[in-house]
Amino acid sequence: MRKMLAGLAVCAALVPAAGSAQDLSEQELLELFLAQRDAYKAAVEGKTSLTRGLTLVTAEDVEIATEVAAEPATPTTPTTSTPEGTEVAAVEPAEPPRADTVVSENATATLVKMPADLGVNIRIEFAFDSAALDDAQKPKLQKLCNVMRAADIQLFRIIGHTDASGSDDYNERLSRLRAEEVQRYFVGDCGIDPGRLEAVGLGERFLLEESDPDSDQNRRVEFQALS
User: Fold this and answer.
1) 217: containing domain
2) Long-range Cβ pairs for the range 57-61 (8 Å, 24+)
3) Per-residue pLDDT of the chain (227 residues; tens, 9 = 90+)
4) Number of separate domains in the chain
5) Is 3 inside a domain boundary?
6) CATH, residue 212
7) Is residue 83 assigned to a domain?
8) Could you tell me the pTM of the whole model?
């Protein structure tokens, strides 16, 4: 596991919308995710009349984290003796494969700038000097988890953002670590297939409150349905 970077006390939020995730029903959240997916597909295919204001942006030197099932441990074969004194091999069961995080560094990614009416808004508090997701914050993600499990959506992207304080490299890494923490929760606690999730850290590239670069509104995590 990676060493967590130190950071300021942060509240993370999805892009603003008419209502927060806590206020929306699971059906309403599902409809938003499906609308995101359809608008993204239209943007990729160049059908601008169907994008609903969604735009695509190419960003270089982006770190994208995905979780994949690791190879199972190789079974060991110690020998044991039978009552007749004949030695046979006793095969121990292999450990089940675990999800492991793979980070593609310096990648070029097509990113999505989501219009407000397609967004979902939730606040997640991170402790001071930590990128760990506190247990008290996990219930806020449970409704999203239920929707992800039920939805016929192949890929969700989790995007971490920071404010403009700190260096670019620091902010981008910190934002990715926080996005990964949410990703790990969805995989480990919610049972989401790791192949359906990717985490991206964008640091301060896309400020929500450009007039106040250090605003806590800029420290957020955004969820997008892509396919």
Assistant:
1) 10-225
2) 57/110, 57/111, 57/112, 57/113, 58/108, 58/109, 58/110, 58/111, 59/108, 59/109, 59/111, 59/202, 59/205, 60/106, 60/108, 61/106, 61/107, 61/108
3) 333 333 333 344 444 443 455 578 889 889 999 999 999 999 999 999 999 999 888 777 676 778 665 554 444 444 444 444 444 444 444 444 455 667 665 566 677 888 888 876 566 666 544 677 888 878 888 888 999 999 999 999 998 888 888 888 888 888 888 889 999 999 999 999 999 999 988 888 878 788 888 887 777 778 889 99
4) 1
5) no
6) 3.30.1330.60
7) yes
8) 0.72
